């Protein structure tokens, strides 16, 4: 394989070391993370895929039984493990058996591409056949083509003419199902679109830290001998009779309360009987003065408008007098109507 082709695969599946083991970025394991698998199986399949790509063993650069501790550049640069990797030769029909030299099939390898649906019962979940389908199965390009989010990102990415050449300068997203474009061009578009979609839904640092905790933990790469694990021993979380507990359990008056250990029968609570007829609110309603006739006529309402206080009709609101009707003659004994002419005061 030419160096340029090798570099393409290295760029597609760049890894970093975590705990002495190569690890893929989460963006390159999106479809693996969506599988109905346990966290340990997902972590193992990610390592298996790295081994398939780079000829590592358990994600480590082991050569003749010795862990060289190489970086990816060192490991692939001196070709120590390169000829044992599937970047040099096509992958396996099953674990441990190698096939013919590299061809275009490997362009669509990955843990981040949507595969065509398989028939029910085609393989068992978590089996080797499941792994091969997830990493090497035919890509469902039509699913991306019909995805509204990918359509939106397509139009955004199309504005970058320089980068657009990388994907063959397609006119529309239907290029994904066209034979005129290579799988490499389609794969690069999908992965770049995934990055854009991922950044648009970027989680806060706290949310991302919690999310990462499902895939990374302190002892992730530490082997634990199951024979050394201690069995489970049932014991109480705390002693309810200890002063550390009893001193903290008090009622509203500060009196110590007890913890019931038998909760099968509920505690009897004395019910308080209340006679609603004898409830005293402490208010003498007879002492409240009668304010029904205490309404004072506002100075801007003439007597000819009638009495104030109470509902007099009109607008239907209490205390609002009914204005005079415009149907009959107007009482001119009231105040004159306002004028629109300005009145100029003189100091003379």
Write the layout of secondary structure elements.
Layout: H1 3-12, E1 15-18, E2 21-24, H2 30-33, H3 39-54, E3 62-63, E4 66-67, H4 72-77, H5 128-136, H6 141-145, H7 148-157, H8 161-164, H9 183-200, H10 205-212, H11 243-246
Antiparallel strand pairs: 1-2, 3-4
Write a structural description.
By secondary structure, the chain is mainly alpha-helical. Among the domains are: 137 residues, no CATH class; 85 residues, no CATH class. The protein contains eleven helices and four strands. The strands form two sheets. Strands 1-2 form a two-stranded antiparallel sheet. Strand 1 and strand 2 form a beta hairpin. Helix 7 crosses helix 9. The protein is flat and about 105 Å long. The relative contact order is 0.07.
Key terms:
348 residues, mainly alpha, two-stranded antiparallel sheet, 11 helices, 3% strand, disordered C terminus
């Amino acid at each position: 394989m030419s160096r340029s082709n090798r570099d393409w695969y290295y760029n597609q599946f760049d890894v970093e070391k975590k705990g002495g083991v190569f690890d893929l970025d989460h963006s390159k394991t999106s479809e693996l993370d969506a599988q109905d698998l346990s966290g340990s199986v997902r972590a193992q399949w990610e390592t298996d895929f790295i081994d398939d790509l780079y000829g590592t063993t358990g994600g480590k650069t082991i050569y003749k039984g010795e862990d060289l501790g190489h970086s990816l550049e060192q490991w692939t640069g001196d070709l120590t493990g390169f000829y044992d990797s599937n970047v040099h030769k096509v992958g396996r029909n099953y674990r441990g058996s190698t096939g013919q030299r590299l061809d275009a099939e490997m362009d669509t390898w990955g843990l981040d591409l949507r595969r065509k649906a398989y028939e029910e019962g085609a393989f068992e979940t978590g089996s080797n056949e499941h792994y091969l389908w997830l990493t090497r199965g035919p890509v469902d390009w039509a699913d991306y083509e019909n995805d509204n989010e990918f359509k939106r990102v397509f139009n955004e990415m199309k504005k970058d003419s320089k980068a657009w050449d990388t994907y063959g300068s397609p006119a529309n997203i239907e290029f994904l199902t066209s034979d005129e474009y290579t799988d490499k061009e389609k794969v690069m578009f999908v992965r770049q679109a995934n990055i854009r979609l991922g950044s648009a839904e970027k989680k806060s640092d706290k949310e991302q830290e919690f999310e990462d905790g499902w895939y990374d933990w302190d002892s992730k790469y530490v082997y634990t001998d199951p024979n050394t694990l201690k069995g489970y021993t049932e014991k109480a979380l705390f002693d309810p009779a200890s002063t550390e507990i009893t001193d903290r359990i008090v009622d509203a008056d500060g009196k110590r309360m007890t913890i019931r250990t038998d909760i099968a029968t509920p505690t009897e609570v004395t019910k308080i009987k209340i006679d609603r007829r004898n409830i005293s609110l402490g208010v003498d309603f007879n002492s409240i003065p009668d304010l029904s006739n205490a309404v004072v006529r506002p100075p801007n309402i003439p007597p000819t408008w009638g009495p104030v206080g109470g509902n007099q009709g009109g607008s239907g609101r209490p205390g609002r007098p009914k204005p005079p009707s415009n149907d009959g003659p107007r009482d001119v004994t009231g105040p004159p109507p306002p004028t629109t002419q300005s009145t100029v005061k003189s100091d003379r």
